[in-house]
Amino acid sequence: MATIVTCDSRHHSTREIADYIVEVLRTTNGSAAVFAELDEVGNNIDNIDALVVLAPIYQGKFSEVASRVILANQAELARKSLFVAAVGIAEQLPQDVSDVLTSYRPRELGYFRGKIDPSVLSGAEKRHVDESEYGDFRDWDAIKRWAQTIGNRGAN
Known about the structure:
The protein is an alpha/beta fold. It is built from seven helices and eight strands. It has one domain: Flavodoxin domain (Rossmann fold, 3-Layer(aba) Sandwich). Strands 1, 2, 3, 4, 5 and 6 form a six-stranded mixed sheet that branches. The chain is globular. The mean pLDDT is about 90. It comes from Auritidibacter ignavus. It holds the Pfam family Flavodoxin_5.
């Protein structure tokens, strides 16, 4: 059995975090962790021990796509280890988003600051982002610690 790490990532920065978590799980926990696209999760749910879902917060809300995958597989996930992490630009996870994610009953809930690269944003996206939020705020040490923690809690 294995761990699937999946994510929603419009501009690839959350995918980079997901790939790093797979690497950490493999190298520090000897995990059989693999990355799978969100739309593939339902097809593989019976063959895994754990699911790690990462998704960005857009306009104050956790990814609807990631939420749908979690909710669609809720019965199966009740028998698995679910780990959820949100990625956003705020310094802390907004309480209303935390409440939604906690309702999914993950074994561990994480939050990481992300990256906003204006060169990949659409005009509409740029209108929702203050220029002071541009930059790469990802804390790779914090991500590694979280990955090690979830590895010790069943994502292996």
